[in-house]
């Protein structure tokens, strides 16, 4: 009887241990698993067409080719302009005369498209977030900040909403401090909503983005922009894919 009792106790401890492991799974682990991060990062590069508008005006229309490790990327605009980035260096066509947003464009749209796969990047800090919005029960929500010196805008933050049923990211509120004015950015936060997920080689990718104003405690406010991702595919690249023309400027 003692042996049977000991066996039952051991089995109970194993069961409790298994349940504890399930409970211990972090927000980022659940989201990355749902987004098939391991499959995504096993690919070399992804390519897609991105059309973006704000306030009814076209903001961007380009084909993006990005390494899945985010170290290199190419934006080939429909008007013939090109932006290439290699880690922290950005090269761009001399025909781009208004170059204030070149670095912003080089990194931001790729970051938004890769966002579900970058939650545990070096320099990320995750904290609990008390979601007081009326539909809070539908989401797991946490806040992302960054260690000093991370990227071009370490003062940015994100409030990330994952659908409780699917663990896919549906919304991410954020501030843009690229200009360096954090107080101004925090006075006007925005949000990106990820919609119409489609599987590409087993990886769910949002094919529609909607941009909103955002207010803490309220959530999404005014609709301000839209984006569509089409012709999404995983590709292989060559040494020449991200090679800048000698005439290109640097930023």
Automatic annotation (TrEMBL):
The name on file for this protein is Lipoprotein
């Amino acid at each position: 009887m003692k042996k049977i009792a000991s066996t039952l106790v051991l089995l109970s401890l194993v069961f409790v241990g298994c349940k504890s492991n399930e409970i211990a799974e972090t927000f980022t682990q659940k989201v990355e698993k749902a987004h098939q991060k391991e499959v995504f990062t096993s690919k070399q590069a992804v390519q897609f067409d991105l059309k973006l508008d704000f306030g009814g005006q076209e903001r961007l229309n380009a084909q993006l080719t990005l390494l899945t490790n985010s170290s290199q990327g190419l934006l080939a605009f429909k008007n013939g302009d090109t932006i290439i980035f290699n880690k922290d260096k950005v090269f761009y066509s001399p025909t781009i005369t208004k170059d204030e947003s070149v670095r912003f464009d080089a990194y931001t749209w790729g970051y938004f498209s890769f966002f579900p796969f970058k939650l545990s990047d070096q320099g990320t800090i995750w904290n609990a977030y008390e979601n007081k919005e009326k539909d809070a029960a539908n989401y797991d929500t946490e806040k992302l900040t960054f260690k000093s010196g991370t990227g071009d805008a370490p003062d940015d933050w994100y409030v990330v909403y994952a659908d409780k049923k699917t663990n896919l990211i549906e919304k991410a509120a954020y501030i843009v401090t690229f200009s360096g004015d954090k107080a101004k950015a925090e006075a006007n936060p925005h949000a990106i909503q990820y919609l119409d997920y489609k599987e590409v080689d087993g990886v769910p990718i949002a094919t529609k983005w909607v941009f909103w104003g955002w207010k803490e405690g309220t959530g999404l406010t005014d609709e301000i922009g839209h984006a569509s991702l089409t012709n999404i595919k995983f590709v292989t690249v060559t040494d020449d894919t991200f090679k800048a023309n000698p005439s290109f400027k640097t930023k």
